[in-house]
Amino acid sequence: MKRFDYLKAGSVAEAVSALAAHPKARLIAGGTNLVDLMKYDVEAPGLLVDINGLDLKRIEESENGTRIGALVTNSDLAYHPGINRRFPLLASALLAGASPQLRNAATAGGNLNQRTRCYYFYDTATRCNKRQPGSGCDAIGGVTRIHAILGASDSCIATHPSDMCVALAALDAVVEVEGPNGRRDIPILDYHRLPGETPERDNTLSPGEMVLGIRLEGEASPRHHTYLKLRDRLSYAFALVSAAVDLKIEDGVVRRARVALGGVAHKPWRDLEAESLLVGRVPSADATDAFIARLLSGAKGQGGNDFKITLAERVIRRALRQAAAGTPQLQHEKAIA
Amino acid sequence: MPSAPPSLQTVPVTLHINGKRHDLDVAPWTTLLDLLREELKLTGTKKGCDHGQCGACTVLVDGVRINSCLSLAVMRNGAEITTIEGLGTPERMHPMQRAFVEHDALQCGYCTPGQICSAVGLVAEGHAESRAEIRELMSGNLCRCGAYTNIADAVEDVLNQQQKAAAE
Predict the structure, then answer these.
(1) Tell me: the pLDDT tens digits for A117-148?
(2) Which residue numbers delimit the FAD-binding PCMH-type domain (chain A) (predicted)?
(3) Domain range B11-87, CATH architecture
């Protein structure tokens, strides 16, 4: 690990001004991703700003919704009674990710900002536009089992690795950030971005901005949801394809359908137009077919991940069936209904 | 103007490890794992992958299991840390240690301190009831000898003992 200066931030203002003043500064919270990347010299911050002392560890529930502080750990969030009551989909997605030890350390803010697990991003002997802008992409034409099938570019085919963010995308969360120009809200679907020509940017944070928390409005479906994750091992592995589904069903008819995919793109993937094909109809194979056809119309494999297009179809089909039936996938249950 | 290179400044850190207070000056890039093993010679905690993938370095920080390889020591100032050395001794074993012995829940033993600390954390968390839940919630600890069946037996045994004790 390269040497760095260390600052224990005493306030959000101090953290933000340190970030803004030092271009090579990084915030550290749980450290589960950043310390790993620093060991590989993928990240080499000149200044590490420790935000663990900040008052961002609370989950606040009110009439208007739920606010999750950036430093709430993945475990505290996953087992919080209010989250389980109002947003069981989020709790389930969290428990699908990482291991108990990692969830005990990893924070909500860090989960949003974690980097891709693309092998080439991690391997400093290879070219990677995300790690070193303009150097090229050795993933393209390389080993592509875990790479994107949607929204990739000629510069980058990496995927976003989070499970939590897939659920947040389905739940239309809002990310609260603070920076040198004050506070602002970023809708989750605008928070992460597609790689385009600038894959070094994972998200739409401006320089010096940090995440304060995540807001969720109202309540999601208590029954008609699921987080279904398929991966190379039965637990403790990143998704090849995952789906977060939240359905509002009244008198047997779908009134609202929100479906986000993980493991397939540089950001959690949602298609609001495709979702409209599920609305106003009784859940059925026909509606699902139409939805899948629209959602995956732009899907393109890279060779090693061509199977993901078929896998995504099947994950969506199963997940929609689970959500419609009110039988969400339990994360310790390895059989898939 | 290029910024000055990072200093070699150490940071004062107080850790309470296995019930004993340690006032230390640590380089900020020292992981909790390296501090335990290299500085304090508490070599019961093992370095496996050093990247949070194997769980051999699992310790309890303020009663919660984490991967010590992915935590910098400076981030844990003031914390209570329990390692395998703090759980029990050969004469007075922790119930989880005894269960691992009784169930032959190891072969080479390298992953065992991490498995035991993780299992103690699992019991304290209180989210595992079934065998399937135990297996899922022990998934952060790899055992390349493949002693998983007996590890799950040991954890299940301690959970059952605890439930029985609570019922009495």
Answers:
(1) 999 999 999 999 999 999 999 999 999 999 99
(2) 1-221
(3) Roll (3.10)
Q: Which token pair is A316?
A: 């969506």
The CATH number that applies at residue A45 is 3.30.43.10
* Predicted local distance difference test score (pLDDT) of residue A195: 98
Q: Check CB contact under 8 Å for B130 and A22.
A: no
Question: Closest residue of A to B73, CA-based?
Answer: A31
User: Is residue B104 within 8 Å of residue B68, measured between CB atoms?
Assistant: no
Q: What ipTM, to 2 d.p.?
A: 0.96
The answer to whether position A25 is within a domain reads yes
A50, HSE (Cβ side, Cα atoms, 13 Å) = 18
Q: Report the chain A residue with the minimal C-alpha distance to residue B13.
A: A8
Rounded (10°) CA dihedral A108, A114, A118, A122: -130
CA distances from A83 to A88, A107, A279, A328 (A): 6, 15, 26, 16
Q: Which residue in the set B7, B70, B121 is minimally distant from A5, CB to CB?
A: B7
A335 to chain B: nearest residue by CA?
A: B132
Q: Using DSSP, state whether B24 is helix, strand or coil.
A: strand
